[in-house]
Design goal:
Length: 107
């Protein structure tokens, strides 16, 4: 099952994302915008997923966010390198340190 979406045809977006766009940014914060406003999510993990058929290869991202600003499963606009990418994230529950965990799968 695919858990990530991006729309390279939307104005302001660029080429499909690759794990290289994230692997050197563990710990960095990304601005995430929804209909209810914006917040930041911190990138906790970027892991390759072998066998993917999508352009750019397969990978999994895990983000951490403030527990009081819960984001339901949906597509959100992420600001990445001056472009906007629509990414489908799924909440995974709380991290042991209290932050909310979210996952995006690109396969």
């Amino acid at each position: 099952m695919q858990h990530a979406a991006e729309d390279p045809g939307t104005p302001g977006t660029s080429a499909p994302l690759k794990i290289d766009s994230f692997s050197s940014r563990i710990g960095n914060r990304f601005a995430v915008t929804s209909a209810n406003g914006s917040q930041e999510l911190r990138l906790a993990r970027a892991e390759p997923l072998p066998g993917a058929v999508r352009e750019g290869g397969g990978f999994r991202l895990e983000f951490l966010g403030a527990p009081e600003q819960f984001l339901p499963q949906a597509v959100y606009a992420f600001a990445i390198d001056g472009a906007t990418h629509d990414i489908f994230i799924v909440p995974l529950g709380h991290h042991p340190e209290g932050e909310m965990r979210y996952e995006a799968i690109f396969f």
